[in-house]
Structures are given as structure tokens and as C-alpha cells.
Write a structure and sequence with these properties.
The complex is a heterodimer of chains A (561) and B (224). Chain A has 561 residues and is an all-alpha fold. Helices cover 71% and strands 0% of the residues of chain A. The longest helix of chain A is centred in the N-terminal third of the chain and has 46 residues, at 2-47. Residues 435-442 of chain A have low confidence and may be disordered. Chain B has a domain at 46-143 and 154-177. In chain B, a hairpin with a 5-residue loop joins strand 5 (87-94) and strand 6. The chains are: A mainly alpha (561), B alpha+beta (224).
Chain lengths: 561, 224
């Protein structure tokens, strides 16, 4: 044992030493490679001028060709949608960027410095589809957004429409992943796609003369309804639902600010494209709500109403009917939404909704504290609503009108050891205390224990049922069968009696006689056999008689003369 | 009725067709970039334009210098004012010596037969637009780029440009008719000796160029 322990300790020390050695080795390798890389870049920068132009072009094309071969190999080996495929696709993206950048700087003509990003984005998109790479698609969307942001949507070729077209080209990737049931990539793509859409909207709206929160709310409503159209158990619906909510409330919050409406009043005329896109989004949202939503819930309906509300407010403002009403209505509605979310969280124990409701209130508080941006009337209304809400909540908690679900939660959380491990350990303890776990066990103590373990609403229901029903014997217990099993008696080796020596001698004698008889029989059988061939020779092959087979057509035509 | 059964999918039968298309497209773009540069150099109309060369700041050094064109304002020919960073077209022509003549700028291309430069708006006021052209790099050996320190205010620095369809390539920069590559220390010595011989003075006493403050990068000031 001591030797084994010593050996184990030695092995552990050896492995630890190896790990230390390798970690040091890795650190040195990383530093070395970094220094070598920097030196390489520095050296290349010094000699770059002296490299002929044709050689630079060859380098760029070779880099591109190698990455294309990699893509082809990955496709041939059917690595699409795997981590290797993702890596190959990303390397391909990098190679395209390197090649185009090399060529653009070598053959410099003074074209737009960001235009090459547009070119690169278009060139990497097919590779992303071919390898089913979510990372490449995200890179593509990032490049498009960067290009639009740096160039300016108004000055980029094709303008705002081109940016949306380029982003829309990544849309079929969603269908592709959904058809392949690739849930992980689909969830990642959904998050990235939703964020990209809102970022694109931000870039496009940055150059607008007013804050287009009506269009923004319509977009948010559509995104939200798309999320609700997806199965709630699927992970890829989460970004649509939550980012849609966030954007819708953001648009509503903006509509609470007088400054936002000022710009809407001052603008000479809305662009027809904005109006058309808003109307299209509203129709699209209505279609999703009517057709695709599996269950008509309150939550999406409340959020889907936001664009309609802001639309109606915009009509009022543009017609000069009422300037304060939109702010007033928006403030009330946003408070109502906050209350609704808090209520959802408290009533049904949904922590996310509770947090979201509180976040809405924080947003409102921040908007109020921002100063003079919010009208005093809206502030008064908001205070009234806050007080009313507080009063309602106080009443709510005082009367302890808690739901069955909350009762169950409270009971479960009241136990100190309510964790996964503690629950398992508790079960194990119970098993140890009651090793014979018979299904027919029906002690009174166990029944009470089982009832305590049940949630509150179930115990209440059980008690009510048991009190209401008369006690009748419906199951007659089966009589236990009489067992014929006899317990074995074990004896020690000393207790077992040994046989006599005579018997041993007789047994030996019989065995000898039997052996003699067997040897005699063998020798007789060998003598009777005639020895014709060598025992090591091959046995003579038996000549088979030839049996000629005749074709069924062999006698055909004999009868003819 | 299914009109077209085409799906962009890694499983579809068209994936190799798409792959071949991708390869061709990528190589074509690379080829076009090189061809465009070559085509401007061969087919482009040559111009001469006053310029100021500057050293480019970079961590690892560059194989080019930045070229600034001081003649960067002209009259705006359109009724609607240009927006900042908008792409505009500067109408140009050339005189008998081949020096560029800037005739105005517009948001629209000139009629066929007239030459133009692509540029972006830097500023606008009183119907005068300030623009920035794209071709602002000149490839030069880093060892020979020091010659720009010796360029004086009175020196004539001309960039030789070729233009085609609004895009340009700088072919060379000449300081008093001498290529910038030869304006370094070696060229100075030869110039000094030539000037000394002509004036009958020792070479060391002759200063060929006056350093212009605009040509030298500003020194770093110690801010306390």
C-alpha cells in the first residue's frame, strides 16, 4: 500500500511537472510566435516596396486559391454545418479580405476606401451558404453594417435600400438552418440577425431629420410577433420576443418626450418610402397575428398595439388637433405595460417579466429625471399612476391573495435544503432510512410525509376530496402466499465427517482396473487395422465416377430427318 | 405550380455550380482591380497638377507617401447645395502644357467628351465647394522618401496623373522637374556641386533649398 501511494504521488508530481513544463513551453511559444509575427510584418513592410507588382498579385491570388481549395475540400467531405466548416468559412472570409486589401493597396486608384468592404461582403456571402456557417453570416452582416455606418447610408452606392437588400440576402440562411434543425446555430443567428436589424435601423435613422419612432415601433411589433409565432420552447424565438419588446417600449418611451414630437411637427413632409414601409410592416404584423400565432395572448397584443397607437398620435399631431394628448396617452400606456409586466412576474412567478416591468419603470424614471424633456402634465400623471400602482400592490400583498403556484413556491423555498443536490441527498437519506421500499406500504406516518412533500394546491385538493367522499373499501388486500422455502444450514469444514480409508482403497483399485481395460482395447484396435500407407501421407483420393450431364436441348432436332 | 426548384443549400445539387461561380467571381474581382489600374495607366489622359507630398504615419512603415492637392476648391454648378461627404464630379480640362484646369463641380457627370474627377465634398459656402480626390497615394521607396524634407516653398512640385472615368493614378512627382526619388541626400550633393561650379564658390556654402515649415512634420511639444 505504501509503495502504491508513493508511486501515485510520484505520478501526480510527474504530471504536474509536465503540465507546468508544457504551460511554460506554451507561454514561450506564444511569445515567440508573436515576436516572430511582428518581426515578419516589419520585415515585409521594409521589403514590400521592392517586391514586384506581379509577385504581390500572385501572393494575393495564392492566398485566395488556398482558401477556395479549403472550402471545396470541406464541401467534398461534407463538413457543412460543423465546427470545422465554421472554421474553414471564417478562414475563407479572412483570405478574401486579405487578398482584396492587398490588391486594392497595390493597384491603388483612389476609389472609395470603404467600397472594398462592400465588395468583400458580397464575395464572402456564397461561401457562408455553401458551408452553412453562422459565423460567416454574422461576419457578413457586421461588414455590411460597418460599411453603411462608415460610408453613410445616403452616400453609399444604392443608399439605404442597398443596405437593407444586403442584409436581406442573409435572410434565407434562417430557413436553411430551420430545415436542417440546427437549433444552436439558429439561436445564434436569430440573436445576431435581430441585433443587426435594429442596428441597421439605427444607422438609417441617424441621417433622418426626425426620429422615426413610428417606423421603429412597427418594426418592433413585427419582430415581436414573429417571435411569438415561433414555438415558445425553441431557443431561437427568444431574441425576437425580447428584443421586439425592448424596441417597442423604446419607441413608446420616445413618444413620451415632447422633443421627439417637435421634430415630427417641424418636418415638411414624410418620405413616401417611410410611409409605405410602415404600412407594409403593419399589414405584415396583422397577418402574423391573425395566421401564424398559435395562441392569442395578451402580451403580444398589448405590444402590437404600440405602432397603431403611435400612428394615431402622429395623425393627431400632423393635423394639429391635440399636441399634449399623444404624450399623455403614451405615458399612461407605458405605465400600464410596466404594471402588466410586474403583475405577470408577481402573479405567475415569472422572474423575467418582473425584471422587465421594473426596467420599464427605471426607463420612465430616467426619462422623468432627465429634466425638462418630459412635460409636467405627464409627470403628474405618472406620479398618480405610480401611487395608484403602489397602493394596489400594498393591498395585494396585505390580503395575501397569492396564487396556488406562489404558495407552492413559498413552501418549496421555505425548506433550507431546496437545491438539486440537497433534494437528491434527502431522497437518498429517505431510502437509507427505509431500505425495504415496498409499494404496498401504507403507514399513516408515510402518508402524512407524502402529503407534506406535495405542493399546497395538491394537498388542499386531496384533503377536499378525502373529506367529500365517503370512506369505502374498494381494494381488498391479497393474502400473502405461504412459502415452502427452507433456510439452508451451513457447516464448517471441521464439522463435515471424512470417509474411511478402505473406501479410498476400493475407489483407487476400480480406477486402475478401468484404465487397464481401456489400454487393452486401444492396442487391439490398432493391431486389426492393415497398415497400407504412411500415417503422415495424404489419404488416397477416392475416384469419383464421372456423371455426364446432358443439355435439355442436346437431343433437340434428332427426330427431324 | 412549381416554377423553379432552386434552393441555396449545402445539400442541393446546385452547390458545386454555386462553388464554381464563387471561385470565378472572386478571381474576376481580383483581376478587375488589377486591370482597372493598368488600364488607367495605359489609356488615361495625362495631367499635371500642383501637389504637396507628406510622409505617411504608420506603425510598420509604408511604401507610399500621402499627396495633397492644394487646389481643392471650385465653383458649384448646381442649384441644390451639396451635402457633406457626398460624391461629386469635378469638371476638368488641360491647357497647352498639360496642366489641369478645374472648371467647376456638380452632382452630375459632365456630358460626353468632357473629363472629370470623382471627389467627395469637404466643405461648402458661397457657391464654392471644397473637395477631396481619392488618388492621394504615391508609391516610393521608403529610403528615398526623405527628399520631401528638402522641398521649399518656392519649389514647383508637380504630380503627373492619368485620369480615366473619374479615377486617377499618380505616375510620378517632380520637384523642379526632377523626380522626387532623386531629391534625397545624393541629389542634393550633385545639385550643390553643380551650383557651386556655376557660381565659382565652394560647394558647402551653397544652399539649394529652403525648408518650408509646411513640409516638415511638426515637432512634439512637451506639455506639462
Amino acid at each position: 500500500m505504501a509503495a502504491d501511494n508513493k508511486k501515485n504521488k510520484f505520478e501526480i508530481a510527474d504530471t504536474q511537472g509536465r503540465i507546468r513544463f508544457f504551460s511554460l513551453y506554451m507561454l514561450l511559444a506564444v511569445i515567440g510566435i508573436s515576436v516572430a509575427g511582428i518581426a515578419g510584418i516589419w520585415g515585409a513592410a521594409f521589403t514590400w516596396y521592392h517586391i514586384p507588382i506581379w509577385a504581390k498579385m500572385t501572393i494575393a491570388l495564392v492566398i485566395l486559391f488556398i482558401s477556395q481549395v479549403g472550402v471545396g475540400m470541406a464541401m467534398f467531405q461534407e463538413r457543412q454545418g460543423t465546427w470545422i466548416g465554421e472554421g474553414v468559412a471564417l478562414v475563407h472570409c479572412a483570405a478574401v479580405f486579405i487578398s482584396v486589401t492587398l490588391l486594392e493597396t497595390t493597384f491603388y486608384t483612389g476609389s472609395s476606401s470603404y467600397f472594398y468592404m462592400w465588395v468583400c461582403a458580397v464575395l464572402i456571402l456564397p461561401g457562408a451558404y455553401l458551408l452553412c456557417s453562422a459565423a460567416s453570416i454574422i461576419a457578413y452582416a457586421g461588414v455590411v453594417l460597418y460599411w453603411a455606418f462608415m460610408t453613410g447610408v445616403s452616400y453609399s452606392p444604392g443608399g439605404c435600400v442597398m443596405m437593407w437588400i444586403l442584409l436581406a440576402l442573409a435572410g434565407p440562411f434562417y430557413m436553411l438552418l430551420r430545415d436542417h434543425h440546427d437549433e444552436v446555430r439558429l439561436a445564434i443567428f436569430s440573436w445576431a440577425g435581430t441585433i443587426a436589424v435594429f442596428l441597421a435601423f439605427g444607422i438609417a435613422a441617424g441621417e433622418a431629420p426626425y426620429i422615426p419612432f413610428l417606423l421603429f415601433s412597427a418594426l418592433a411589433g413585427v419582430v415581436l410577433l414573429m417571435g411569438y409565432a415561433i414555438d415558445s420552447r425553441k431557443a431561437w424565438g427568444v431574441p425576437f420576443r425580447w428584443l421586439g419588446r425592448l424596441a417597442a417600449v423604446g419607441a413608446l418611451l420616445v413618444s413620451c418626450l415632447p422633443a421627439a414630437w417637435d421634430s415630427v411637427i417641424r418636418v415638411a413632409g414624410f418620405q413616401w418610402t417611410n410611409i409605405a414601409v410602415t404600412v407594409l410592416l403593419l399589414f405584415f404584423g396583422a397577418a402574423i397575428y391573425g395566421k401564424a400565432l398559435k395562441r392569442k395572448l395578451w402580451s403580444p397584443a398589448l405590444y402590437a398595439l404600440i405602432p397603431l397607437l403611435i400612428g394615431a398620435e402622429t395623425v393627431l399631431i400632423r393635423n394639429g388637433i391635440a399636441f399634449s394628448v399623444p404624450i399623455f396617452v403614451s405615458s399612461i400606456y407605458i405605465f400600464f405595460l410596466g404594471m402588466f409586466e410586474v403583475f405577470q412576474g408577481v402573479r405567475f412567478g415569472k422572474a423575467h417579466h418582473l425584471r422587465w416591468g421594473l426596467t420599464i419603470f427605471i426607463f420612465i424614471g430616467a426619462a422623468v429625471l432627465m429634466g425638462s424633456h418630459v412635460s409636467p402634465f405627464a409627470m403628474v400623471i405618472s406620479f398618480i399612476v405610480i401611487c395608484a400602482a403602489g397602493w394596489q400592490l400594498q393591498r395585494f400583498f396585505r390580503k395575501k391573495k397569492v396564487s396556488f403556484f406562489q404558495q407552492a413556491r413559498q413552501k418549496r423555498h421555505a425548506k433550507k435544503d431546496h437545491t438539486v443536490t440537497s433534494v437528491r441527498q434527502g431522497i437518498n437519506k429517505k431510502r437509507r432510512n427505509h431500505p425495504v421500499d415496498s409499494p404496498y406500504k401504507s403507514n399513516a406516518a408515510d402518508i402524512t410525509e407524502q402529503q407534506e412533500a406535495l405542493p399546497g394546491w395538491m394537498t388542499d385538493a386531496v384533503n377536499r376530496e378525502s373529506a367529500a367522499l365517503p370512506h369505502t373499501e374498494t381494494v381488498s388486500p391479497k393474502e400473502p402466499a405461504v412459502s415452502t422455502f427452507v433456510a439452508p444450514v451451513f457447516h464448517g469444514p471441521d464439522q463435515i465427517p471424512l470417509p474411511d480409508k478402505k473406501i479410498f482403497a476400493e475407489i483407487k483399485k476400480e480406477a486402475k482396473e478401468n484404465k487397464m481395460k481401456q489400454t487393452k482395447k486401444r492396442s487391439e484396435s490398432v493391431k486389426t487395422k492393415p497398415v497400407t500407407t504412411s500415417p503422415w501421407g495424404t489419404p488416397a483420393s477416392v475416384k469419383r465416377k464421372k456423371q455426364f450431364t446432358q443439355s435439355p436441348w442436346s437431343k433437340e432436332g434428332e427426330s427431324k430427318k | 405550380m412549381k416554377v423553379m426548384n432552386f434552393r441555396i443549400s449545402p445539400d442541393s445539387k446546385y452547390r458545386w455550380v454555386l462553388f464554381i461561380f464563387l471561385v470565378i467571381a472572386q478571381f474576376s474581382v481580383c483581376g478587375y482591380i488589377a486591370w482597372r489600374w493598368h488600364n488607367i495607366q495605359v489609356d488615361g489622359i495625362p495631367y499635371q497638377w500642383k501637389c504637396i507630398p507628406r510622409l505617411e504615419q504608420s506603425a510598420f512603415g509604408t511604401d507610399y507617401i500621402r499627396v495633397v492637392f492644394p487646389e481643392d476648391t471650385t465653383k458649384w454648378l448646381d442649384d441644390t447645395e451639396p451635402r457633406l461627404h457626398e460624391t461629386i464630379y469635378v469638371y476638368i480640362s488641360r491647357d497647352d502644357k498639360g496642366v489641369i484646369q478645374i472648371n467647376g463641380a456638380s452632382a452630375h457627370k459632365p456630358p460626353v467628351g468632357e473629363d472629370y474627377m470623382n471627389a467627395s465634398v469637404v466643405g461648402y459656402g458661397d457657391s464654392i465647394v471644397q473637395f477631396l480626390v481619392g488618388f492621394d497615394r504615391y508609391r516610393i521607396d521608403p529610403a528615398k522618401a526623405d527628399g520631401i524634407y528638402d522641398i521649399g516653398v518656392s519649389d514647383s512640385v508637380i504630380a503627373s496623373i492619368r485620369m480615366k472615368k473619374g479615377e486617377g493614378v499618380i505616375e510620378g512627382i517632380f520637384v523642379n522637374g526632377m523626380p522626387l526619388e532623386f531629391c534625397g541626400s545624393e541629389a542634393e550633393k550633385t545639385a550643390e556641386s553643380l551650383a557651386g561650379k556655376a557660381a565659382g564658390k565652394p560647394a558647402a556654402s551653397v544652399k539649394t533649398h529652403i525648408l518650408g515649415s509646411a513640409m516638415v512634420p511638426p515637432k512634439q511639444q512637451n506639455v506639462e
